[in-house]
Amino acid sequence: MFYQEAGQFSTRYAQDRRVFRLRQDRYGLVALLLLAFVGVPYLGNDYWFSAILIPFLVLSLAGLGLNLLTGYAGQLSLGSAAFMAVGAFATYNVELRVPGSPLLLSMALGGGVAALVAVLFGLPSLRIKGFYLLVSTLAAQFFVTWALTRLSWFSNNSASGVISAPRLEILGVDLNSPVGRYLLTLGVVVALFWLGKNLVRSELGRNWMAVRDMDTAAAVMGIALLKTKLLAFAISGFFLGVAGALWAFTYLGTVEPHGFDLNRSFQILFIIIIGGLGSILGNFLGAAFIVLFPVLLSNLVALLPAGLIDAGQIENLQKMAFGALIIVFLVKEPEGLARLWQKFRERARLWPLRY
Amino acid sequence: MLKRSLLSSLALAVSLSVATLTAQADNEQYFPLQSYRVGPYAAGGTGFFGGFIDYLKYVNANGGVNGVKLTWSECETEYVVEKGVECYERLKKGLNGAPAAATNPLSVGIAYATLERSTADKLPLITINHGRTDSTDGSVFPYVFPLQLNPYSEVSAIINYIGQQAGGLDQLKGKKIVTLYHGSPYGKETNEVLQTLADKYGFKLTLLEVPHPGNEQQSQWLNIRREKPDWVILRGWGVMNPVALKTAQKVGFPADHIIGNIWSNSEDDAAPAGAAAKGFIAITTHPTGTDFPVLQGIQQQVVARGNGDLADPKRFGTVYYNLGVVNGILNVEAVRIAQEKFGKQPLTGEQVRWGFEHLKLDDARLKELGALGLVQPLQLSCSDHEGGGAVRFQQWDGSQWKLISDWVQADRALLRPIIEASSHQYAKEKGITPRDCSQDS
Question: Which of A224, B295, B416, B428 has the largest count of CB atoms under 10 Å?
Answer without folding.
Answer: B295
